[in-house]
Amino acid sequence: MLGGATFALFFALLGWWAAHVRGTAERKGLGLHIEADGHDPRVLGDVTRLRQVLLNLVNNAVKFTAHGSVTVALSQSETPDGVAAHVKIRDPSIGISAETHTRLFNRFVQADSSTTRRFGGTGLGPAIAKGLIAAMGGEIGVDSREGSTFWFSLTLPRASEVEARAIGWRQRPRSQRTQPACTCSW
Fold first, then answer.
1. Whole-angstrom distance, CA of residue 154 vs CA of residue 80
2. Among 16-25, 44-53, 56-65, the least confident range
3. Less CB within 10 Å around the terminal CB: N or C of the chain?
4. Contacts from 133-139 at CB under 8 Å and sequence distance 24+?
């Protein structure tokens, strides 16, 4: 069952995931980067499930990356139905063959049979992530040429002024809501 709450889209996702994977990335000598446009819309949705999806994808990126950095890029656009959120997790990992792309989001599937021995895991994470994103009306996928880019996109309803006030958030005039783009690194 999906929950629903009003939250600031990027703040709720960006400020959260890095703390959970920073230690593992540092032990491996990997960098973590965030790229986001400056607008942080208030939306309605299941922030807990979105965080679970993001954490799974970022953990996998860190797990399968031997050197370099993992980047989470978040962008959004206004639509008549709400805010279309686009999240990409890029890494210079071992990559994934084109044949594997279509089955990677099935339960208990990993890129190849040696993956479990080398990296652990069950192959359930991407399947669960796909189910959660689909339940929210979104799409999830992977592009892999050099490294991998896992992505998900979904449209979340905008929080109304009344809903935002109910949680103590005062909407600034639209002209004051856009901030400079953010690029952060650890």
1. 13
2. 16-25
3. N
4. 133/53, 135/2, 135/49, 136/2, 136/45, 136/46, 136/49, 136/50
